[in-house]
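Morning run. Coffee first, then this:
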Amino acid sequence: MEIINDKNFSEKTKNGVVLVDFFATWCGPCRMMTPILEEVQAKVGSKATIYKLDVDESEKTARNFGIMSIPTLVLFVNGEQKDKHVGLMMQEDVVQMIEKHI
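And here it is:
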């Protein structure tokens, strides 16, 4: 799963349905989210793109979206924030979150 950053965030989230996982390498629940998101990506295929953003490496973007706890999943449609969830999510719930917007 591609990790995006402050420099390419706007470009990566401006088109289509994009889910961004705000995470940190030291965060246990964040590490648990990765295999779940890989399964979700396989399930939704090309209907949506999932990226990860390390809050320690991209503090500006995390701050702009008010990320106070991680993991936080933020869903964008054509660059506009449409949904947000703080905390670990199960695969079915992430798929539902995405499917509401595709």
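The beta strands are 3-4, 17-23, 49-54, 72-77, 80-86. Good start to the day.
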